[in-house]
Specification:
single chain; alpha/beta; Serine Threonine Protein Phosphatase 5, Tetratricopeptide repeat; Rossmann fold; 6-stranded parallel sheet; elongated
């Protein structure tokens, strides 16, 4: 391979041949003769190193060869010499997008537009840069401007769809992607975008068909997208197979992680030293860390390469060796941690859901317990996930939406939010209070250790779809997750529980953006939880001993004669309380039993008389029988009062019942 010296500093050597070498270089490059083209361009630069058009061509060649940073330097040099060179601005803008430098890319595209306001390519490039910056509405405006300038511009339609997808405007996104595929039927990215929009709209069969169409047009990304959809639908075998084609930061799994060892084939593969690599965010790492003990249980020695900030949390219970960078040692195989479900052939009925598999540090837990105190029903709350433009913004909810929880008597909302989103605490309605635990929650180098300790003393965690949900689930803490209408694959499509976390409950938006309904449902469920936890209350009112024994006999009669189970349960509860009072007061047994039996007989007769009186009233029979029954009530109540006085006298009751008749 010929090494290009395009990046070398050249001294000007005037020559009429420079133009000829430049033209030859362009022709040879177009013909695919790269080696010869580079030699000709080198010659042109030696003769005229300050020729902007030659530098631009050099930048283009370097970019095509994958030497992005060197290409940017060439374009920058050309622009120093010719600030109005629109091609240099446009090309460096595209390169900067690829290099994940969207702010600089935006400046480049803006420079092109300043030179030529009707340059559709520049407007489309601007849309891509703005999307990377998270300025989704501005991205959409720029993409639509590109389409206005060039209606047959499928790439601009794709950028419209991408912005609308992130804005959670799925119906419009679908139309944009279909516009792109109509302009270019073989455009795999359009079919893939259409599949994503259809999946979010719940049109799963159509989404799968669109993924197949994208895959048939060469889209590797579609394989991973289809895998995620199949997982959401519960088809774990095909789903995890497709999930192996997932993209990480615009690259394939192999490109992102590097291939240094064969892929681990799972238990029984004969590969006994495996390197486990971290491939996603903190939440995914916590979710799939459950598989690390299973590797060890299979007789395989595992080393997990993960961020140092997770080591303390994971080592609380996991015995797996944790390192920050790959050690210079021989390994039989490697695998991404998110690929472990595939390696273990996980199915719906074999998800390893034993919790907890992480734990809080006892000393920290005691410290946070003292700090937050025991009062109230303590609910930890997190409302915003990763703010990165590539993250799913629609999964976060506004903190004020949790107002129905804050209004429940005895509930204390305690913020577990860190960083982005904390500003919402300053804009809450006056009647909504959310406590800030303070004390430097997870302000040190170790992630989640304080949060885990605080969770140990919370009654409930309420969170959006973020790493806190996984942490609470792994700790086996009660956790309710507020999910957007079309949630991520791991939460599936309709379940109210989680296969991965037994202590988790899922609350889904009934329609897109309907957070109010989610928190109304949560408030209703929490009200039931509070009622179930609240101990039954009974007022201990003073009464005479005769009244106590009388009441016991009446309740015994009711327990025998009532037939409705709910009423019987209430009667038995009251009877147990009063019989307990009688035993504690020592007013049972001996002489009182005979008097209690007489009271029971009188009260039984009163029950029958009252029933008979009601029959008379129903039949409007107010004749002699009714009068006789009514008089018997007086007589029976007089006997009842006499028996109660005898009981009061027997025990020298402090309270005595008195009656007087005019």
């Amino acid at each position: 391979m010929v090494r290009s010296n395009l990046a070398m500093r050249m001294q000007p050597v005037p020559s009429r041949e420079a133009g000829t070498f430049y033209e030859d270089a362009c022709s040879l490059w177009s013909a695919g003769q790269r080696r010869d083209a580079i030699e000709r361009l080198d010659a042109a630069l030696r003769l005229d190193p300050n020729a902007p058009h030659v530098l631009v061509m050099g930048g283009y060649m370097l970019g095509e060869m994958g030497k992005g940073e060197a290409a940017v330097r060439f374009y920058r040099r050309a622009l120093l010499l010719d600030p109005r060179n629109a091609v240099a601005h446009a090309n460096v803008g595209k390169l900067l997008v690829e290099l994940r430098r969207p702010a600089e890319a935006l400046e480049a595209f803006d420079a092109v537009i300043a030179l030529n306001p009707v340059d559709a390519d520049a407007w489309n490039g601007r849309a891509g840069a703005l999307r990377e910056l998270g300025r989704l509405e501005d991205s959409l405006i720029s993409a639509r401007r590109a389409l206005e300038l060039r209606p047959d511009f499928p790439e601009a339609a794709i950028n419209c769809g991408n912005a609308l997808l992130k804005l959670d405007r799925m119906d419009e996104a679908l139309l944009a992607y279909r516009q792109a595929s109509a302009l270019r039927p073989d455009y795999a990215a359009a079919w893939c975008g259409e599949a994503l929009a259809l999946g979010d709209l719940g049109r799963y069969d159509e989404a799968l068909a669109a993924f197949v169409a994208a895959e048939s047009r060469g889209s590797y990304e579609a394989i991973g997208g289809k895998g995620c959809l199949l997982l959401a639908l519960g088809e774990f075998e095909r789903g995890f197979e497709g999930y192996e084609a997932r993209w990480l930061g615009g690259r394939t799994l192999a490109e992102a992680l590097g291939v240094r060892h064969p892929t681990w084939g799972g238990p029984g593969s004969g590969q006994n030293r495996v390197l486990v690599l971290n491939d996603h965010g903190l939440g995914d790492t916590i979710q799939f860390a459950r598989y690390l003990p299973l590797i060890e249980a299979a007789g395989v020695e595992a080393t997990f390469v993960c961020p140092a900030k997770l080591h303390r949390l994971l080592s609380s219970t996991l015995a797996t060796r944790l390192v920050e960078t790959e050690p210079d040692e021989p390994f039989d195989a490697q695998i991404a941690i998110s690929s472990l479900p595939h390696a273990f052939r996980t199915r719906l009925d074999t998800v390893p859901a034993r919790v907890p598999y992480l734990s809080a540090e006892p000393a920290l837990a005691a410290r946070w317990a003292e700090r937050i105190g025991p009062d109230g029903f303590k609910v930890g709350i997190v409302w915003q996930g990763n703010p990165h433009p590539e993250a799913d913004r629609a999964r976060s909810f506004p903190l004020a939406a949790a107002g129905p929880l804050a209004r429940l008597p005895g509930v204390r909302l305690i913020s577990l939010q860190k960083g982005f989103g904390e500003e919402q605490l300053e804009a809450l309605p006056r009647e909504m209070r959310v406590e800030i635990p303070g004390g430097g929650l997870d302000s040190g180098p170790d992630a989640f250790v304080d949060t885990a300790a605080l969770m140990a003393h919370l009654d409930l965690v309420v969170t959006c779809d973020t790493s806190i949900a996984h942490l609470a689930g792994a700790l086996a803490r009660p956790v309710w997750v507020a999910l957007k209408n079309a949630a991520e694959w791991r939460w599936m499509t309709e379940r109210e529980d989680s296969l991965w976390y037994p202590t988790m409950r899922l609350f889904r938006q009934p329609t897109r953006g309907a957070w109010a309904e989610v928190f109304d449902a949560m408030a209703g469920a929490l009200s039931q939880t509070l009622a179930a936890r609240r101990p039954a209350q009974a007022v201990r009112a003073p009464c005479s001993i005769g009244d106590l024994i009388d009441r016991v006999t009446i309740l015994r009669i009711k327990s025998e004669r009532l037939t409705e189970e709910a009423k019987c349960a209430n009667v038995r509860r009251e009877l147990d309380l009063l019989e307990s009072e009688a035993r504690e007061a020592g007013v049972v047994g001996g002489a009182v039993e005979a008097l209690a039996d007489d009271l029971a007989e009188v009260n039984g007769q009163l029950w029958e008389v009252e029933d008979a009186l009601r029959w008379c009233e129903r039949d409007a029979d107010f004749g002699p029988r009714f009068v006789t029954l009514a008089r018997s009530v007086y007589a029976l109540n007089d006997r009842r009062a006499a028996l109660k006085r005898r009981i009061n006298a027997l025990f020298d009751s402090a309270l005595m019942e008195e009656k007087s008749y005019g």
